[in-house]
Design goal:
Shape: globular
Structural class: alpha+beta
Radius of gyration: 34 Å
Number of helices: 24
Largest sheet: 7 strands, antiparallel
Distance between the termini: 58 Å
Bound molecules: zinc ion
Amino acid sequence: MSDPAKRAEELRILLNYHNYQYYVLDNPEIEDYEYDKLLRELEEIEAAHPELITPDSPTQRVGGEALTMFEPVHHEVVMESLQDLFSHDEVREFDKRVREAEKDITYVVEPKIDGLSVSLEYENGLFVRGSTRGDGVTGEDVTANLKTIRSIPLKLNMPIPFIEVRGEVFMPHERFFKLVEQQELNDEKPFKNCRNAAAGSLRQKNPKITASRGLDIFVFNIQRIEGVDVELHSKGHELLKKLGFKVIPDYKICTDIGQVIEEIDKIGERRGKLPYDIDGAVVKVDSYAVRRKLGSTAKFPRWAAAFKFPPEEKETKLLDIEINVGRTGVLTPTAVLEPVTLAGTTVSRATLHNQDFIDGLKIAIGDTVIVRKAGEIIPEIIGVAKKGGGDIYKMPTTCPSCGSPVFREEDEAALRCTNAECPAQLLRHLIHFASRGAMDIEGLGPAIIEALVSKGLVKSPADLYYLDIERVKEIERMGEKSAKNLISSIEKSKSAGLARLLYAFGIRNVGQKAAKLIAGRFKTIDRLFNVTVDELTQIDEIGEVIAQSTVDFFKLKSTEHLVERLRFAGVLMEDNTEEVADTRFAGMTFVLTGTLPTYTRSEASKIIESLGGKVSGSVSKKTTYVLAGEDAGSKLTKAQSLGVPIINEDQFKEMIK
Ligand code: ZN
């Protein structure tokens, strides 16, 4: 076998190379599978020889421990913000001011990525620290989280003594949509846009979460450098590329302001088609010598400015309003528009959020509306330009997916479908239904559930109980043995009992505890079909809201249907929680004296009381037992004189078995 140190070194070089090809150049040379195999081999070597782990090892990307706080980082070179320019005229004025200091100017124009600005520091080619911009002077140390971003090199291609670079961490659109979908599925508040998502993901205390978010980076400036002379910003970009950084794409060197404006407009036209958000274009003086000469005002550098693209607005006709039912049951109205081109993309749909939004803008089908698209990917309707004569749109009272009544909670703007079998919410319902605490069906995770649903094998939680091995085997990669196991854990879940079943239904506001309380009180599901709010609120911890949700749920025809099918399949509909307390010490009085070998007095007292007994401080004829330990004093003597039985801890333990 080869030398592990040598092999580890080789693997690190290989992995870093392929990582660079994949994440920086977007040009993978090997399959993910092969990459994973190499990574596994390195992990194994490092596990056997921990002394071989190096800070730049690809295995160290997600090794960091979760933090309780981020350490402050002082930025040696201030991470300045830029002056905003809003028109071509303002760009020309900027140019004039620059040329007052220096006649001969070359600019670099770059897209302005809408993300989170960070600084990355490298010593002798190794990534040592990364921080957020913060207020420009002091940021936060997010090194562990930045390490999880695969396009950030842990080791540079050249071991230059020191370099600090600035870049923008962002979340690509594709990842953003996936994340939002996942958040909705988990009933979490989804991020509003890519920038929020990037910031929220980078400032996670747990690097593993950051790693899962698929963040990316574009590096766009050298803040400090030692050991190499760089005279021009554009040459700096070339150096950064050579070092292995993912450099801001589409930057352009311009020799006069006309070219600069042309380039800004080109970036503006492209912006809707990029796979990430940009919110402007940055104009920078190329020469570092000129930059130093120009210096900064109290607020901004004089050698750079950011052109902000105006949000584009257009009028178009609102042809229709469609209602979508999300996986959480929320009904969302979507405007169907006569297609218009906005910020480089064709817009034919826009969200109308909810009834409050529609009422606020007094929107009716047939109106001419104003659609706006700013840097964000999602267009929005900001007003009505011309009324079409129709009535203000009213959201439906029933779910368009299943016809069940919809429901609006007092403090919520959203309407929800209440049907547990609503096809639009099926996936989420099933995941919850099978989860721990609910029916706890082992082996029935989200992936299998998705496969069952997409094959049309399961359309309701009840369908799970009508599956057989043959049908389950239709799922890809599901062997005979796994199919058998799955069917047997579904079978086992039939006896979960009423409390878990109630929780599994996913009744709004009914969590595990409420489900337990309700099951404990009413014992059988049949009692719940005509239960009233009053009856439910008689349970101490059940309030109006939970009671109403429960009543509403059991009124639905679909609930009746679901329960019947579950019952027919043999699912237990009764409460099976053990509530008959063990009262073996009822009517007995214990006196404790001396030191017991293992229990403290208070522990022993708790046990006695939990079994229905009483603990008294003094011995009398009524005392049932004296539990005596070491150094028992007068109480023991008294017990002996009264003839009260005396027991030791071992005997006590025997009694409570
Ligand atoms: Zn529905």
